[in-house]
Amino acid sequence: MTKSPRQWSIILLLTLIGAISAAYLIPAFAAGRPVAPLDDAYITFQYARQIARGHPYQYNDGDPPTTGMTSPLFGFLMAGVYLLGFAGERIVAIALGSGVLWLALIAWLTYRLASHLIDEDASRWWPLAAAGLVILTGSVQWGCFNGMETGLFTVLTLAALDAFLAGQIGPCALWLGLTGLTRPEGLILAGVLWATFLVTSLLRSRSAKKQLFGKTQNPALAASRKMKDTAGVWGAIQWKQSLLLSAAVLAGFIPSLVNWTLTGATAAAGLQAKAWWLNVPAYPEEIARSILLSYRHVILGHLLGWEANWRWFVPPGMLILSLLGWVWLGLRRRWAALAVTLSWFLLGTFSTATLITSTWHMGRYQVPFAPLALALALVGLSALSQWTSRWWRVALLGLMALFLLASSAYSTLHSARVYRRSVSTMTRQQLPIADWLRENLPPDTRVGVHDTGSLRYLGRRPTYDLIGLT
Fold this sequence. Notes:
There is one protein chain. The protein is mainly alpha-helical. The protein has a domain at about 15-25 and about 30-210 and about 240-265 and about 385-465. The protein has 20 helices and 2 strands. The protein has a two-stranded parallel ribbon with strand order 1-2. Helix 20 (about 450-455) links the parallel strand 1 (about 445-450) and strand 2. Helix 7 (about 150-165) runs antiparallel to helix 8. The longest helix has about 50 residues, at about 390-440. The chain is globular. The termini are far apart.
């Protein structure tokens, strides 16, 4: 049976996912043992092991509870994997191998998100192009295969946006609740979607009232209708859906509540160690300046490519096309989609700039926003395609699309090279030290460490964290 072009494109995307997955997993397993590229990943594995052993939030046996597990959902998920028999370094293999699933889901959800945002009369190839570009984006690949919660969080944020734009508030609330349990930034997305839902419900009610009653010259009748309108506005809010979204927002506060109960501080240990605004001593002007400079680097360096020095986070200049996509949504009066995507992008990326480490680890904190920006860039390109008719404009549009494709492919090569180097560093440095600690020190010896993840998890000796992440 002859396959359609659409089926062939899906096969191509799946093949691409397989090839890219191999490019990351082969070096991760090349040393004869699974090796995560980041020491921070092993912090979660240690907390997961402690959860499985019945000591949640206790990094070392007998120590007071600590809040170094920034992603509770991912930590408990890994604890479940541990209880299923994937103990020791097998849990590392599961965390790395799950990157294949995260990359496939991100591509699929980016396709769905682009389908919601791009006009129905535009070519249906644009969403497929968005999926292909996100698969080829090196920063997204890194986020999927770094052994941490980055891939899971990106999937959950895209799933929440997809469900909201599709009008499926129940599933949206579920995904939102899980995002808040996965990363602190999930609370921002939950708040954005909750506020957008409330405002659009109120505006929809007012519009319906105007169409139904029109204008009247009778003051008494107008006053009566105003009272009815006020009651009708609140009655128009779909309370069941509003309560579901409110519950999702409240779920985002659970990690902070747990942190406060255990330690007296709402912020996780990692946030206390990394946040500009928790600097001691506190100099407000310097803190604000540092955050703004960090945000400038996030936007101009990572997302626009202005300061990237050929280490592209996303295709350089792509954010300009994303901006065009947002303008197009405004021109088409897609106010809810515009408010949700733009607010989440701006507030979410700004929240990452409050961290001293905001652009570390291949920009893993900004990875969840890359698929959204790519989808909006394709919205911008589709808008340009509808405005262009002359052959030279069409050719220019084709060159722009080709540049996006080529620069995305280049980012794959760069990201894979950095990934191999990071795995090699872990293999030659942290892991041999961890093995030495396990084989040579008495079990009750406490070791002062800088990188506390692998040395504690694989070294199996209690540690004293000099940085304060755990």
